[in-house]
Amino acid sequence: MQAPEIPENEAERLHALQTLKILDSSNEERFDRITRMAKRMFGVSVSLVSLIDEHRQWFKSKQGVDVTETPRDISFCGHAILEDELFVVPNVIEDHRFYDNPLVTADPNIRFYAGYPLKLRQGINIGTLCIIDDKPRDLDEEDKQLLRDLGGMIEQEIQAIETATLDELTLISNRRGFLSLAEHTQKFANRKEMSLTTIFLDLDKLKIINDTYGHHEGDYALKKFAQVLLNTIRECDVAGRWGGDEFIALLTDSNEQKVHSVLERLKKNLDEFNLSSKKPFKIEYSVGVAHFPHHSEIPLEAMIEQADAEMYKHKRSDTSE
Predict the structure, then answer these.
(1) d(Cα 265, Cα 110) in Å, to the nearest integer?
(2) What CATH class does 10-163 carry?
(3) What is residue 103's predicted lDDT score, i.e. its pLDDT?
(4) What angle do CA 303, 309, 310 make, to 5 degrees?
(5) pLDDT for 193-226, tens place per residue?
(6) Interatomic CA distance for residues 249 and 265, integer angstroms
(7) pLDDT (tens digit, 9 = 90+) per residue, 69-80?
(8) Is the pLDDT of residue 236 over 90?
(9) pLDDT tens digits for 1-52?
(10) Of 7, 208, 261, 320, which has the fewest beta carbons less than 10 angstroms from its beta carbon?
(11) What is the three-state SS of the chain?
């Protein structure tokens, strides 16, 4: 058996999936309607909307199976998200990647698989619309186009969710999306008795970049800073664009030493980017940090306000030097 490879943009892909807040959600008719159509149109035993999390594939919609998830390392969909087009295995017994897969040698005894990679945007595949059967089979071009069309319908439904929670420019969580994820993270940290840290970041001299080099360069600075921030924090932490030139991150189980390491890594990563970008400006920022014990009863927005206040202290001290 061959386990699926991990995409190069895995951190960005997982963040996009996390931002949707769709994992482990209840059944929705708008998805179930399409998997029912797929199962009936293709005459297969199973049809799924499968989302690929860090360690599992979870089924947002399922027809023909009772389980709600399986491990990612044995998933067919983990392979499918690596593709830009349909991923079709006519006879899995004849494929060295799958013939001894537990999903082939035992229930549900897969013999045929076809998956359409669900794209939030180019390069970000979060899962599949897939059809599965216990007998080998082929898809002709008309069948393939039908599966693409059904997959496109699923993408439209998912993108409607994304629009409400994603910042259009930087493609990380907007304020609404961040607060939604952060509230969930705060509850989890309280249950697990984990400390919380809010980090508030403000880009310096963004107005100068806009005025001197144009707003397209200011947008470039915002997008690149968001990418560096997202690639610096852990996958279990939450980051978002608070608005304008302001960004926010929420870290769990992080003491002052751990947060210091994160900030040092952020500075190093941004310094490396500035050096390699060859732009006539540097992306710079001010930062404020606020720590809270797990038993803190301070509301989330008040935690953010404390980090914001610390950021302004930092900015004023830099200005006065």
Answers:
(1) 45
(2) alpha beta
(3) 96
(4) 95
(5) 889 999 999 999 999 999 999 999 999 999 999 9
(6) 14
(7) 999 999 999 999
(8) no
(9) 999 999 999 988 998 898 888 999 998 999 999 999 999 999 999 999 999 9
(10) 320
(11) CCCCCCCCCHHHHHHHHHHHCCCCCCCCHHHHHHHHHHHHHHCCCEEEEEEECCCEEEEEEEECCCCCEEEHHHCCHHHHCCCCCCEEECCHHHCCCCCCCHHHHCCCCCCEEEEEEEEEECCEEEEEEEEEECCCCCCCHHHHHHHHHHHHHHHHHHHHHHHCCECCCCCCECHHHHHHHHHHHHHHHHHCCCCEEEEEEEEECHHHHHHHHCHHHHHHHHHHHHHHHHHHCCCCCEEEEEECCEEEEEEECCCHHHHHHHHHHHHHHHHHHHHHHCCCCCCEEEEEEEEECCCCCCCHHHHHHHHHHHHHHHHHHHHHC
Task: Parse the chain into domains and list their residue ranges.
Answer: 10-163, 175-320
**Rounded distance, CA 247 to CA 240, Å?**
6
At 316, the pLDDT band (50, 70, 90 cuts) reads confident
Number of Cβ within 10 Å of residue 97's Cβ equals: 14
pLDDT digits (tens, 9 = 90+) for 154-203: 999 898 887 778 888 998 889 988 898 888 888 888 888 889 999 999 99
175-320 is classed in which CATH architecture?
A: 2-Layer Sandwich (3.30)
CA neighbours closer than 13 Å in the CB half-sphere of residue 248 = 28
Neighbours of 65 (CB within 10 A): 15
pTM above 0.85, yes or no: no
| Mode of pairing for the β-strands spanning 69-71 and 87-89 | unpaired
Enumerate residues 6+ apart whose C-beta is below 8 A from 224: 273, 277, 283
Residue 33 to residue 70: CA distance in whole angstroms? 22
Residue 64 in contact with residue 39, Cβ under 8 Å? yes
Which residue's structure tokens are 């900015």? 315
Peptide bond between residue 7 and the one before it cis (omega within 30 degrees of 0) = no
